[in-house]
Amino acid sequence: MSIVWVIVIAVLALIAGAALGFFIARKYMMSYLKKNPPINEQMLRTLMMQMGQKPSQKKINQMMRSMNNQQQSK
């Protein structure tokens, strides 16, 4: 009978660990994204200007759409 209890406790500990790990990872990712936001139009415009290009709004929109499509396909 003690083997059954050991198995039950192990399964419960595994489930509790998985749930706790999920919430810790979720909190970590939320804080990471708050500190390091994904690239936006202003960052892209600055990057292009640093590379010596004069960014038009059409080009910015095209690159943002391309980046969003690439991210959604992953």
In short:
This protein is mostly helical and 74 residues long. Helix content is 82%, strand content 0%.
What this model shows, in words?
This protein has helices at 2-35, 41-50, 57-73. The chain has two domains: 1-37; 39-74. It contains three helices and no strands. The protein is an all-alpha fold.
Tell me the layout of helices and strands:
Blueprint: H1 2-35, H2 41-50, H3 57-73
Number of helices: 3
Through-space gap between termini: 48 Å
**Strand share of the residues?**
under 5%
The overall average pLDDT, rounded, is 89
What composes the largest sheet? none
Choose one word for the global shape: rod-shaped
Task: Specify the structural class.
Answer: mainly alpha
Low-confidence stretches: none
The percentage helix is: over 70%
Structure keywords:
74 residues, mainly alpha, 2 domains, 82% helix
